[in-house]
Amino acid sequence: MHRLQVLSKQLTSGAFTERPSTISSSADYERLYKRSIEDPNGFWAEMAKDFVWSKTWDKDHFKSNFDVNNGPIFTHWFKGGKTNIAFNCLDRWVAAGRGSQPCFLWEGNEPHQQRTMTYSDVLAEVCRLSNWLLSQGVKMGDTVSLYLPMVCELPIAMLACARIGAVHSVIFAGFSADSLAQRIMDCKSRVVITSTGTMRGTKPVDLKGIVDKALDLCNKGGHKVDRALVVEDSSCPLQPGVGFQASRDVWWHQHIPQQAAQCEPTWVDSEQPLFLLYTSGSTGNPKGVVHTTGGYMVGAGVSTKYVFDMQPGDVYWSTADCGWITGHTYLTYGPLLNGAVCVLFGSTPTYPDQTRCWQVIEKYKVRQFYTAPTLLRSLLQHGDDWVTKYDRSSLRVLGSVGEPINEHAWHWFHEVVGEKRCPIVDTWWQTETGTHMITPLPGSWCKLKPGSASLPFFGVQPVLLSPEGKEVTGHGEGILAIKGAWPGMARTLHNDHGRYESTYFAPFSGYYFTGDGARRDEDGYIWITGRVDDVINVSGHRIGTAEVEGALAEHPLCAEAAVVGVDHPIKGQSIYAYVTLTDAQRQGKEMRQILVDHVRKTIGPFAVPDVIHWAPSLPKTRSGKIMRRVLRKVAMGQEKELGDVSTLADPSVVDLLISLRGE
Ligand code: WT7
Fold first, then answer.
1. Are residues 290 and 404 in the same domain?
2. Interhelix angle for 207-220 vs 177-187, to 10°?
3. For a substitution probing ligand 1, which of 429, 439, 457, 533 has the most ligand atoms within 8 Å of its CB?
4. Strands 167-170, 143-147: parallel, antiparallel or unpaired by DSSP?
5. pTM (predicted TM-score)
6. Which DSSP category does 584 fall into?
7. 650 CB neighbour count, 10 Å cutoff
8. What CATH code is carried by the domain that includes residue 564?
9. DSSP secondary structure, 399-418, as one string
10. One domain for residues 543 and 452
11. Position 529 in a domain
12. From ligand 1's centre to the CA of 402, what distance in Å?
């Protein structure tokens, strides 16, 4: 810390230049915020005028019900309006004379692998793919599954679906064949788009092989995928033994270039689904979160503009993958809706070494840089010289997302990376919220507090609730909930509106329940304290304990499993699993590897437990509920703080578990 303070004194703090896209005073923020809450219908209608609609929305376009006792939960924005988000992302900028401006600056796994696509290039390729999708019989409302690494074809495929009113479902390319199959079957995609593979650092990832396995599983499950469109990645060709199924698989480079480069956009109703994105909950299967078009477009475009102070031509880089919500809202839609130049990063931030991020920033003259605290923590341990030897003078706004940012990482980001010149926008939001909810704004008027997500964005009313559902006013702590609807919010869960209602609205009627805890300080700033449910956040990836438990329990030698999240210095949290074997004799290194491999195969590498703790039995209440609180304390070596264990059916289990730690 001391070095940082000395360094920060030596640096001249170049003033943050206010631009028309920034809010320039506290009074302006308060005025706009107040208006957005008092008159959401009018406020958002005004914001929506910056976008192209083929038909204007009705005068009273916004309606919503958040109270489960008051009929079904629903929200609609811009009712009566028709638009097309791909048109707003691309055609609009080409028509405005920005066709030759770069849209994507792609950098591959190796620093020398580069590709620039202009707005005109991207528009033409999107149209070609849209035409191909139409030729395959994909219609408005059909779902197309995308299983691609970070190549230009991924956002292009998202936009091509949007152009014809089809719904995209991007599955992160780190998911296993089982998870992929489950997601394809759930939304019944008949078309899947993938690539031969990708290099992740020095490791080839056999994507086509995984797709083949997944589509076999789909067949067994009674769902047939008619077409797999495959992008050829020359750095990772088809792996040995992986072939082409003549009746199903086709190459992108053989079928897309011959399509017409024009395709009329399909103007869709504001509430037409735009995409599905599967995310983990505290229980059950992953949920297919449904986002719709009009409100999401306005929410994504407006938040990107104000939170990142973004203007057309700005070079923007988010290290997120399109497989997660950040890659949808703040890598694809938000930046393109603002005419930005997006760096698409197809590598790992620490490959070939820990200087990669700063090289990329120097090379492309990145203005806004958006990343996750876990990456900052892994980079700052290498010292500052690796950062300061690269030119970061282009940077203006730094963003953080995915988990609470600790003070040390915040200061390093602010002082070393941003030379004290760039505000840090610590953005709190979720897959379900679609767009930023609580965040500082990058104006010199906005006081920054390291570790605080700060203030609500326009249209967002955060409240803190007591466990009984009473609003905590002023300075205090509680469960974070949101009162009233905002344009970017998810409208339902795919095929399961009941689960949508029971997960997000039943816990506290009248509010959207976030699953996070938070504190409000004397200045009204919000500090997120972390999840209050059984969701673990590993390196900004959301993983449900129930999913990992389910994967472990599926193994025939596993009798029972309980999974908890424990603090981890780099990853934020790591996965810690307690496992009871059907045969205790098998406990040991070999069995651990078997279980780890099994989780990797069932979910994906990022869900693998760091620790497997053998448990002859698990601490349960008399009614059979596993006491995770106790397991978490034992895992972290805090058995002195176990709290009340009197409700355990057999309290001696705890001592037994403590004695087996590290075995
Ligand atoms: C959960 C949502 C939103 C895109 C990435 C994750 C945690 C997210 C912050 C932040 C503290 C944060 C919350 C939230 N989270 N951003 N700035 N400060 N916590 O999306 O996978 O839907 O996860 O991530 O716990 O509920 P997600």
1. yes
2. 50
3. 429
4. parallel
5. 0.93
6. G
7. 12
8. 3.30.300.30
9. EEESSPPPHHHHHIIIIIIS
10. no
11. no
12. 4
The residue whose CA is least distant from atom 19 of ligand 1 is: 403
The reported pLDDT for the residue numbered 18 is 66
Q: What ipTM score was computed for the predicted complex, to two decimals?
A: 0.99
Which secondary structure element, helix H or strand E, spans residue 246, and what is its range?
none
* Angstrom distance (rounded) from CA 350 to CA 347: 9
* 196, 79: one domain: yes
Do 158 and 298 fall within a single domain?
Answer: yes
Final residue of a domain: which of 460, 495, 527?
460
Domain count, the chain: 2
* Ligand 1 neighbourhood includes 401 CB (under 6 angstroms): yes
Whether the CB-CB separation of 593 and 587 falls below 8 Å is answered with no
Instruction: State yes or no: is 321 an active-site residue.
Output: no
Structural domain harbouring 162: 27-65+74-460
Tens-place pLDDT, residues 227-271:
999 999 999 999 999 999 999 999 999 999 999 999 999 999 999
Amino acid type, 140: M
Ligand 1 close to Cβ of residue 321 (< 6 A) = no
CA distance 53 to 191: 29
Is residue 468, in this structure, part of any structural domain at all? no
Q: 515: Cβ below 6 Å to ligand 1?
A: yes
Look up residue 397 and give its two tokens: 């706004």
Residue 169 in contact with residue 139, Cβ under 8 Å? no
Is the same domain home to 566 and 422?
no
* Domain CATH for 308: 3.40.50.12780
Q: Which of 430, 513, 516, 526 to mutate to test the pocket of ligand 1 (most atoms within 8 A of CB)?
A: 430
Whether pLDDT at 445 is above 80: yes
Instruction: Let me know: does 438 contact 456? Beta carbons within 8 Å.
Output: yes
DSSP conformation letters of 313-353: T-EEEE---TTSHHHHIIIIIHHHHTTPEEEEE-S-TTSSS
Please give the order of strands across the beta sheet that includes 526-531: 471-472, 461-465, 476-483, 511-520, 526-531
Q: How far is the CA of 628 from the centre of ligand 1 (A)?
A: 22
Identity at 292, one-letter amino acid code? T
436 lines ligand 1 (CB under 6 A): no
Q: Are residues 42 and 158 in the same domain?
A: yes
The pLDDT tens digits for 89-122 are 999 999 999 999 999 999 999 999 999 999 999 9
Same domain, 277 and 394: yes
Q: Is residue 626 part of a domain?
A: yes
* Residue 105 beta carbon below 6 angstroms from any ligand 1 atom: no
Residue 551 CA to its chain's centroid (Å): 22
Q: Are residues 549 and 430 in the same domain?
A: no
Of 215, 216, 176, nearest in space to 596 by CA: 176
Distances, alpha carbon 293 to alpha carbons 42, 81, 88, 220, 482, in Å: 19, 10, 11, 34, 21
Q: Of the candidates 460, 485, 509, which is a domain's last residue?
A: 460
With the C-alpha atoms ordered 550, 552, 558, 560, is the resulting torsion angle positive or negative? negative
Helices (H), 537-627: 545-554, 589-602
Tokens 């030759």 belong to residue: 100
Identify the active-site residue in 269, 533, 567, 610: 533
Q: Is residue 260 in some structural domain?
A: yes
Nearest to 205 by CA among 630, 662, 600: 600
Q: How far is the CA of 104 from the centre of ligand 1 (A)?
A: 26
Whether 542 lines ligand 1, by a CB cut-off of 6 Å, is yes
